[in-house]
Known about the structure:
The protein is an alpha+beta fold. The protein is 29% helix and 36% strand. The protein has an 8-stranded mixed beta sheet with strand order 1-2-3-4-5-6-8-7, with helices on both faces.
Amino acid sequence: MEFHQVIRLKSGKECILQNGSEQDGSDLLSIFLLTHEQTDYLASYPDESTMTEEDEAAFLKEKTLSPDEIEILARIDGTVVASAGIWRIGKKDKVRHRAEFGISVSKDYWGLGIGRALTKACIECARKAGYTQLELEAVAENERAINLYESEGFVEYGRNPKGFQSRHTGWQELVLMRLEL
Ligand SMILES: CC(C)(COP(=O)(O)OP(=O)(O)OC[C@H]1O[C@@H](n2cnc3c(N)ncnc32)[C@H](O)[C@@H]1OP(=O)(O)O)[C@@H](O)C(=O)NCCC(=O)NCCS
């Protein structure tokens, strides 16, 4: 899928949201490794990543060509500071209405409105792709993310008390959320 939007951040700076393309492989790898280092709320650690720049380029090419999946990059002055995407849960009839949403913003750029803009963009893309349910899982103590999701209409439908095992803090409870599109 393709997406393009220019937004004005709370800082006054311009930020471009655009689907990543093949030439953005190295930028996507860098922002992935950075955000996974900066927070313990994501699903893996940077040293567990096996993706290369070429893998990321192929991933972005595939998402851009896809009719129902997307990875959007947020750029400020040419630098990628965040990414977010939606992906299909399955192709079988019983689950084809469901998509998963994921997002991460570099810590230096939190609180400027990038997370909300990317969330809205992904919701719009999910609707366009024809899904009727968008889903996510968030660490229960990740208040910033949960506030954002609730304010965009996501509703909690359950919890997994031992969803993640953090290297630093032990068990992390996951809040399961869904949005009807
Ligand atoms: C969660 C995350 C995506 C939010 O991105 P962001 O760019 O900081 O979000 P925004 O600036 O658009 O703020 C969105 C909302 O978050 C909430 N929020 C922001 N700062 C907050 C804080 N200090 N405490 C609680 N909620 C907060 C508010 O609801 C805010 O909306 P408002 O500014 O209109 O009141 C970002 O912090 C992030 O990438 N964190 C690390 C990775 C992660 O946790 N990803 C989600 C995994 S489920």
